[in-house]
Amino acid sequence: MTIIARKQTVAVKIGNVAMGGGAPIVVQSMTNTDTADVGQTVAQVEALARAGSELVRITVDREEAAAAVPLIRAQLDKRGVDVPLIGDFHYNGHTLLASYPECAESLAKYRINPGNVGFKDKRDKQFSQIIEIALKHDKPVRIGVNWGSLDQDLLTQLMNENAESATPKDAREVMHEAMVQSALLSAARAQELGMGADKIVLSAKVSAVQDLIAVYRMLAERSDLALHLGLTEAGMGSKGIVASSAAMSVLMQEGIGDTIRISLTPEPGGDRSLEVKVAQELLQSMGFRAFVPLVAACPGCGRTTSTTFQELARDIQDFIRDQMPVWKRQYPGVENLNVAVMGCIVNGPGESKHADIGISLPGTGETPAAPVFVEGKKVTTLRGPGAADEFKQMVLDYIEQRYGS
Ligand code: SF4
């Protein structure tokens, strides 16, 4: 698919999912349910997994949540949902993992935040405890630095050094350095404690696009550990989608990143799976992976005679997404299919010819006829109110003929 050379990182196995070392970029997401509520968490993990999330992270913040983790795992297994679960720990991860060994065993990876486990005083001990538990259960960890909870001692130390330097840097650059050092020092400490590089994933999340790009470039230059990309606190709706896509696409274009999470603040009552859909679409539009057939549709303009073409484009897209769980098994390779639905003669026939199958609906003043192209050749012209349904059937027949066994 892609012609971008990916940076070679150390491969890590998270449950049954391969990450880094040239494996395809992994899509992951995180629940927003109370983990202690087993029913709701199972339902959301299942929805995220069915939407295509290959790893799902859950908060483990207190005893009730830790006790719930093995029950969540068992229920998911019973439902045939084998997505690996990652435990997100802050402050008390060492205690929870030590007190709830079944939780430690059920999770496929532990996320540690060096900013609130840390190095100073008790923090080093607590960090070491988590690493030792991970070693005992043979689990990988993500050392996940976050701008909002950055190790303040380390930051202060670097700020002081910078103030005394003959060539002081900009405060933002010092912050970047602190993020990177926090991740790298923690990784080195984990390795000192006996953890292999094949058990460590790094992340250093910030909320501004340019900062994220700068920090990850530094991380990629100074380490070959697998990298988890994510813009933290990306925001709601289109703002979150655009900011995350902008930051991650620049990095992935440079070969940086082994897994991505698009963190979106859901609209009230909104669909949590949207972040999975956006991550998949980002990877697919950049040519890194294919998840569902792509439907190219023109934006429509004053030449579009009716809403038929928008409806058809939406219809085909929704239909394809709904069918994918079945089609993936029935029609191997169907995710690479390209369909075009175009609104008039200006770009319609040209774009349709470039797709595997495409239709050019008639625009204003055009003869009411819709030529259909298959693999670059015009195969028929559809007319009348049944044209949309006929085209849908043609797409199905094409899939059957090309990808059916
Ligand atoms: Fe408008 Fe035609 Fe272009 Fe679609 S293909 S945007 S209808 S000019």
Automatic annotation (TrEMBL):
Q: Looking at the record's lineage, which domain of life comes first?
A: Bacteria
Q: Where is the IspG TIM-barrel domain?
A: 9-279
Q: Which UniProt keywords apply?
A: 4Fe-4S, Iron, Iron-sulfur, Isoprene biosynthesis, Metal-binding, Oxidoreductase
Please tell me whether the keyword Lipid biosynthesis is annotated for this protein.
no
Which molecular-function annotations from GO does this UniProt entry contain? 4 iron, 4 sulfur cluster binding; 4-hydroxy-3-methylbut-2-en-1-yl diphosphate synthase activity (ferredoxin); 4-hydroxy-3-methylbut-2-enyl-diphosphate synthase activity (flavodoxin); iron ion binding
Which residues does [4Fe-4S] cluster bind?
Answer: 298, 301, 344, 351
| Domain annotation IspG C-terminal: ranges | 295-395
Entry EC no(s) = 1.17.7.3
Q: Which pathway does the record list?
A: Isoprenoid biosynthesis; isopentenyl diphosphate biosynthesis via DXP pathway; isopentenyl diphosphate from 1-deoxy-D-xylulose 5-phosphate: step 5/6
The note describing how and how many cofactors are bound reads: Binds 1 [4Fe-4S] cluster.
Q: Which co-factor is required?
A: [4Fe-4S] cluster
- A Pfam entry, by short name: GcpE
Q: Which reaction does it catalyse?
A: (2E)-4-hydroxy-3-methylbut-2-enyl diphosphate + oxidized [flavodoxin] + H2O + 2 H(+) = 2-C-methyl-D-erythritol 2,4-cyclic diphosphate + reduced [flavodoxin]
Which GO BP terms, alphabetically?
isopentenyl diphosphate biosynthetic process, methylerythritol 4-phosphate pathway; terpenoid biosynthetic process
Protein family (similarity comment): Belongs to the IspG family.
Classification via HAMAP family:
IspG (MF_00159)
Functionally, this protein is described as follows:
Converts 2C-methyl-D-erythritol 2,4-cyclodiphosphate (ME-2,4cPP) into 1-hydroxy-2-methyl-2-(E)-butenyl 4-diphosphate.
The protein here is known as 4-hydroxy-3-methylbut-2-en-1-yl diphosphate synthase (flavodoxin)
